[in-house]
Amino acid sequence: MPIWSFHIYADKLLFLSRGLHTHSNVSMSLIGLEFTDFFEALKKGCPKLLYNTPSYTISISSGWYDLVFNLCKNIEKAISSLRRKNIPVILQIKSKFGGLRVYLSHSEYGISELTKEAEEKSYSICETCGESGKLINVDGYCFVGCLDHSKDK
Question: Are 90 and 63 in contact (CB under 8 A)?
């Protein structure tokens, strides 16, 4: 990893660890990171939730990295007082029929409301760049794209 990338990556982690990261009003974003860097930031930001989660359980494009990070941070807050055996396990996070899908081992403590909210938001966020987008159906393949990325798939 080049030195300048490390500094940017470290700045993002520092910024995120202070809890200042939001999708709508953010000066630094996870969008555009390589998946491995995104997954490391996610594990550092949500250590209880992602304690034993392998990277292959998450399969999304980088435009949704901020959305998923914020969702996981909110779930992390909801489960902060739970013992390890009661913490839900992420089974899968992916795109399905153009929207975000989050599958957990169980959804208590208000978690299902958090996942539902993120899934609904995903229909208005471009999967590629994170800008405002809309659901597009091309011959049965559904995805969310902005004006620039609506013809990419």
Answer: no
Beta bridge partners of 134: 145
Counting beta carbons within 10 angstroms of the beta carbon of residue 56, is it exposed (0 to 12), middle (13 to 18) or buried (19 or more)? exposed
Q: At what angle do helices 111-122 and 65-78 cross, to 10 degrees?
A: 170
Q: Residue written as tokens 């995120």?
A: 16
In 32-109, which ranges are E strands? 58-59, 90-96, 99-104
Question: Which residues of the chain are under the pLDDT cut of 50?
Answer: 1-27
Pairing of strands 134-138, 99-104: unpaired
Nearest partner of 124 among 105, 104, 98, judged by Cα: 98
Rg of the chain taking only CA atoms, in angstroms: 15
Task: Give strand ranges (E) for the chain.
Answer: 58-59, 90-96, 99-104, 134-138, 141-145
Give the span between the Cα atoms of 42 and 13, in whole angstroms.
9
pLDDT tens-digit profile of 105-135? 987 778 999 999 999 999 999 999 999 999 9
Strands 58-59 vs 134-138: parallel, antiparallel or unpaired: unpaired
